[in-house]
Specification:
The structure holds 2 protein chains of 2 kinds. Chain A is mainly alpha-helical. Helix content of chain A is 66%, strand content 1%. Chain A is globular and about 65 Å long. Chain B has 4 domains: 119 residues, NAD(P)-binding Rossmann-like Domain (Rossmann fold), CATH 3.40.50.720; 96 residues, 2-Layer Sandwich (Alpha-Beta Plaits), CATH 3.30.70; 117 residues, Rossmann fold (3-Layer(aba) Sandwich); 98 residues, Regulator of K+ conductance, C-terminal domain (Alpha-Beta Plaits, 2-Layer Sandwich), CATH 3.30.70. A 6-stranded parallel beta sheet of chain B has the order 3-2-1-4-5-6, with helices on both faces.
Chain lengths: 481, 458
């Protein structure tokens, strides 16, 4: 284990986090929250100082294997969260540190599950930090570091592998640093476009910034008690579209930018992502309008489009309380919660490409049962899929289910009904935000015990980092010499 | 520069690693995902696919690539890939590896009609290198510069040599300043000598000199200098063929041992003057029977690197005074074998990488000089480069002592017309000169890069 390299990376993460604490300080100054602004500045200075201290001595050996990559990423996210929780707690918006930690992990992992009963009572600086954490966590802080700091040695790909969602890392260009710059460039510009479109729709600047951060990271912290419901239909539709856009594999945008639109539109994952989305929206619209006679069809379509986009991309905004929908619609919502967004996007969940892989494996297995001598190769995007990739996808699913079931068991100790317990874990491990029942879109997670909160914090981190890094971090094998 | 490499074998991988060190953006294509596993550890883009396919090349970004290098193990695929890249790419330079002697005979025609920028034949160049080693038996490595006017030789100072304990300035006095010590390697340490450096027995020296000085040097140093007349080659590969042909032309007698009967017949037809033995070299008794103990030089050229090392070890036991040359493509094996008596190691893989990297650098510079040669010396710690100065610049006309040179740079030799100048502080560089430089810096692309920039001083 190359400890000095991990120390160096953790130092970089802290320094960057310190820098990211400056915008909330600015927001505090603008809104006359001087005490909060000063707190943020002091905290930022301390964190940057500590980070630079850790970074001071460059590691002699910069070899870096998969093991170090996983450990560095997992521990970076923990350090990021432990420090990120401090402002909420010090300023006093969240009096208990465990709750503050839950809130900020929910932010960085772009989950959006909150323990706050009254969001609007929070100071602007903290509200901004809460939403900004989504934007930082969406593309990943290590990818950001890779983009701005030159890291020598090819092994840094292990960092990107551990942090980027999806079964395999697609480099856009030969160099990791360039790839990271492209990813953040696309991310930044799309966020900017969304902010402009929302400002045109008459949204206040502060709201536009926070909502855009929540959308871009597919996070879902709202800054209003009723999430997005209070905004105009135009704004809701803009948010719907951008939630969907941020759930698309970023390679898609890269292909379009380098004028290889044909490659972009032939990405199977993106196609199926849209197909699943449209199917879910239509089924819910039909179920609401004719099955149970709630509201009008166009209104239901708009609401379904928003809610499904929100849940499928694992954002977690809401314009209506979908906990009041009929059983079939709620079941569809829970189904798309599991499916999630595309690999290589900012969204969470199992990911459409993995679902495709699982379905195809089942189909091939069936064929082989019927015709035992058939030879059938599993294809993704027209190419034979790599055996190692298939294996790691299957193992991902198993680990995912094990953690899922274990978490449900522990959380059920709190004595909530099964829907609440089940969907609370679904919402956290898939980085969505709201669940159903007592954790529905209008409720919050404050009522759970500390034990359940810790379990869900682990789930959120495991979900964001796609399980394996967190497991590597806690596995005793990793720490054996 | 954007570089696409087709074929991720030993050469492709070494090349990618090297080009990466020189700050190029590299994409590697191979149709076997397993070969690409190795490249996962490098910061390159990897692509599974057929390198001769237009679509795959498109996907690899051949239309903004500057150079495409085809180094698969099939000559035809390499040539075809280059041909396609030529049409698919935008002014994409192409480099192909072609190994077959038959194609190599008509190489100029092939290159011209297919529009390929550079064709390399590692077997041929390896054979040339081995030929040098046999002609200068005391050298462990021979690199030629300025079309053979000067050579850098790697020699070890023997026990009880007159050079033991000599200061470097006295050394140059002894040879009328015609020989210059570029690098002294002592154990793991590698230093560029100055006036204070003292030479010892056991040191490995890299010395630069014109070929005619080799004999006086060897005499003084107590090293053998006669070209070797009796050469035994184990393995009848393509390198063996090229090597045997060169040796036979210079009048040596050559014995080739090969275990494939068909190959033996081919060799006997192609090299009528050589003695071809049909037999398995792992049968050591047979080697003795064929005169291993009496041979002047022993060359291990089988396809198995490990076997080559063992053969050379066996030869050093039974024929301690002969010159041993071992072909070895595996760098890890090199590290182990460096302390064993296996003689000179020659790696066709490194030779290929060196040739291509030299070509890439020459494409890179539109400056005031051309890179003619790049060699990596002393386990890759040092580079020796040859530049031709094309135009006047701040570097020309000023005495060397007054030029602000970077640390770790030694101007070894200036070739002006037919004259060889071993530079001192008062000498200048001029337009048209060929200059040989030894340096611990990598990434020198232009003669101007030897000057210290403000950053280096600060």
């Amino acid at each position: 284990m190359n400890y000095s390299m991990i120390r160096y990376i953790l130092g970089s993460v802290m320094a960057i986090e310190g820098l990211f604490m400056l915008p909330p300080a600015l927001v505090g100054l603008i809104y006359g929250e001087n005490r909060e602004a000063v707190m943020y500045l002091i905290l930022a200075a301390c964190v940057i100082g500590a980070g630079m201290l850790l970074r001071f001595r460059k590691p002699k050996v910069n070899t870096f294997y998969a093991r170090e990559g996983f450990v560095a990423v997992a521990s970076s996210w923990i350090v990021l969260s432990v420090i990120g929780a401090l402002p909420f707690w010090i300023i006093g918006d969240i009096p208990r540190y465990v709750d503050a930690l839950f809130e900020v992990i929910s932010g960085f992992t772009t989950t959006g599950s909150s323990i706050l009963a009254d969001v609007e009572a929070m100071t602007h600086a903290n509200l901004f930090w809460r939403s900004f954490s989504h934007w930082i966590g969406g593309m990943g802080v290590l990818v950001f570091i890779l983009a701005i700091l030159p890291m020598t040695g090819g092994s840094t790909i292990n960092l990107m592998k551990a942090e980027s969602p999806g079964p395999s890392v697609g480099k856009l260009v030969p160099r990791i640093q360039q790839t990271a710059v492209w990813l953040y460039g696309i991310y930044f510009v799309m966020t900017l476009i969304q902010i402009v479109l929302m400002l045109l729709g008459g949204m206040p600047v502060f709201d536009a910034l926070c909502t855009a951060f929540g959308t871009a990271g597919t996070g879902g912290f709202g800054i209003k008690g009723d999430s997005i419901a209070g905004y105009s239909v135009y704004l809701q539709n803009v948010i719907t579209i951008f939630m969907m856009l941020f759930g698309v594999n970023f390679s898609f945008y890269y292909y379009i930018l380098i004028r290889r639109a044909r490659d972009a539109f032939s990405m199977e994952e993106v196609r199926w992502y849209l197909v699943i989305y449209l199917a879910a929206v239509l089924l819910i619209t039909v179920n609401l309008s004719w099955g149970s006679g709630i509201g009008t069809a166009p209104g239901n379509f708009q609401a379904a489009a928003f809610q499904v986009a929100s849940v499928m991309t694992t954002t977690g905004f809401a314009t209506v309380d979908f906990d009041l929908w009929p059983g079939f619609s709620r079941a569809i919502m829970v189904t798309v919660m599991f499916i999630g967004a595309c690999a290589g996007s900012t969204g969470g969940g199992i990911k459409v490409s993995r679902i495709l892989l699982y379905v195809r494996q089942v189909r091939i297995e069936l064929q082989q049962q019927i015709h035992p001598r058939t030879v059938k190769v599993l294809k993704m995007d027209g190419k034979g899929a790599d055996k190692g990739m298939i294996r790691s996808c299957n193992i991902f699913l198993m680990a995912y289910l094990l953690i899922f079931v274990g978490s449900v068991l522990v959380v059920s100790l709190d004595g909530f009904d099964l829907t609440t317990t089940f969907t609370a874990v679904v919402a956290t491990i898939n980085n969505i935000g709201p669940g159903l029942g007592a954790v529905g879109p209008t409720a919050n997670f404050a009522a759970f015990s500390d034990l359940s909160k810790f379990v869900m914090m682990f789930d959120m981190l495991a979900g964001r980092l796609e399980i394996i890094p967190m497991l590597v971090l806690v596995s005793p094998l990793t720490w054996k010499k | 520069m954007n570089i696409v490499i087709i074929g991720c074998g030993k050469v492709g991988f070494t090349l990618a690693k090297r080009l990466l060190e020189e700050n190029h953006d590299v994409t590697i294509i191979d149709n076997d995902a397993e070969h690409l596993q190795m490249a996962q550890s490098l910061d390159v883009q990897i692509l599974v696919g057929n390198g001769t396919s237009f679509r795959t090349q498109q996907e690899a970004g051949v239309n903004h690539a500057d150079i495409l290098i085809a180094v698969t193990d099939k000559d035809e695929i390499n040539l075809l890939s280059c041909l396609i890249a030529r049409k698919a790419g935008n002014h994409c330079q192409t480099v192909a590896r072609v190994r077959s002697p038959q194609y190599f005979q008509e190489i100029d025609y092939i290159r011209e009609c297919m529009g390929i920028s550079l064709i390399i034949n590692p077997e041929y160049y390896s054979a040339i290198e081995m030929d040098h080693l046999i002609r200068v038996p005391s050298a462990m490595e021979v690199d030629t510069f300025a079309k053979g006017i000067v050579e850098i030789l790697r020699m070890q100072i023997p026990e009880h040599s007159a050079l033991d304990g000599m200061r470097v300035p006295d050394f140059s006095q002894m040879f009328q300043r015609q020989i210059l010590v570029c690098i002294v390697e002592r154990g793991k340490e590698c230093l560029i000598p100055n006036g204070e450096t003292v030479l010892h027995s056991g040191d490995e020296l890299y010395v630069i000199m014109p070929p005619k000085m080799i004999r006086p040097f060897c005499e003084k140093a107590g090293l053998p200098f006669k070209p070797l007349k009796n050469v035994m080659i184990v393995g009848g590969s393509t390198i063996s063929y090229y090597l045997a042909r060169r040796l036979l032309r210079s009048g040596a007698s050559v014995k080739i041992i090969e275990k494939n009967a068909e190959r033996c017949e081919f060799l006997s037809e192609a090299l009528p003057d050589a003695t071809i033995i049909y037999g398995d070299a792992s049968d050591h008794g047979m080697l003795l029977e064929e005169g291993l103990a009496q041979t002047d030089a022993f060359v291990a050229l089988t396809n198995m690197d490990e076997e080559n090392v063992f053969l050379s070890l066996y030869a050093s036991k039974n024929s301690p005074n002969s010159k041993k040359i071992t072909k070895n493509n595996r760098l890890d094996l090199n590290e182990i074998a460096v302390d064993l008596p296996v003689g000179s190691m020659v790696s066709p893989k490194n030779i290929t990488a060196e040739y291509i990297s030299r070509y890439v650098r020459s494409q890179l510079n539109n400056y005031s000089s051309d890179i003619e040669a790049v060699y990596r010396l002393a386990e890759d710690q040092v580079e020796a480069l040859e530049f031709t100065i094309k135009e006047e610049s701040q570097i020309t006309g000023t005495p060397l002592a007054k030029l602000p040179l970077k640390r770790g740079i030694l101007v070894c030799c200036i070739v002006r017309g037919r004259n060889i100048i071993t530079p001192g502080g008062r000498d200048t560089l001029e337009k048209g000169d060929v200059v040989v430089i030894v340096t611990t810096h990598k990434n020198l692309n232009d003669i101007g890069d030897i000057l210290a920039t403000r950053k280096d001083v600060g």
